[in-house]
Amino acid sequence: MTPVPSPDTHKSAAEWVSRGHQAAARGDWKEAANAWLAGSNSGSLESANLLLSAIPGLRALADTGDIDAQALAAGLMVDFLDDSALPTAFEYARSAAKAGNAAATRTLGYMYRSGRGAPASSFQAESLFSSAAQAGDPYAAYNLAGMHITGEIRSRNHAECLRLLRQAANGGVTEAAAVLGNQLAAIDEDEEALSWYLHAARQGHTSAMFAAGCWYRDGLGTAPDKVQAVRWFLAMLNHANGDGLHEAIQLVMHGMTDEQIQAAAELAGRTQDAETLIRRAHHHGR
Length: 286
Prior knowledge:
Radius of gyration: 22 Å
Strand content: under 5%
Largest sheet: none
Oligomer: single chain
Number of helices: 16
Helix content: over 70%
Structural class: mainly alpha
């Protein structure tokens, strides 16, 4: 529920850690927190741990009425502190939401939806997520879409759910792109479903990579393409996920040329695996 900074794909996790340390040394806790949030979102455990050190500085600013600090502090307190911090987090979120901060409005919605720090209320959660989504918060749009999917919302609307998922995915919520692919697949909108699986796969979502590999293998939403199928199955290995390896091996052993295997491995950033797969295929008597 922490407010999420705009992604900057040009920075590595280490660069975000360094940028946060520099901001903290200046006493700029909002900048430090935003940098470490970005690092955490890019997979840096160090950044996630450093976020705890930003909370006292943010709280000091929040207590002066700084709206952005209130929003950041509320989100971090909900995400990282125990339930004793929830009353203060609620007050910060309510204050910042009243001032029109979309991220704080979303955090408040989460508190009502989960019943953490606020009375459980799907009605309040829906209203708050709607306000934040209308203000352009992509995570609020994703949360609201989730309420459509789970049936928590007053008037479930599949078209509205898809619109919200598109808003969230276009706003940088990778998980929303994968969920959107699933929702479109369920209504046989295969071509668009594949496009969103690919969108999520390019952002490192391994389940979407597996789906993309299967769809290229089976010709769903596109013509069958063994090179693209093996590409995405192998790409999962870059994220320490070997669930697609069996499928990749099966494809290379049945009807792929050495050149196709090399092309797939190169596309996956796994050129070191090409020779192993080629030897495996030759040994199988392809």
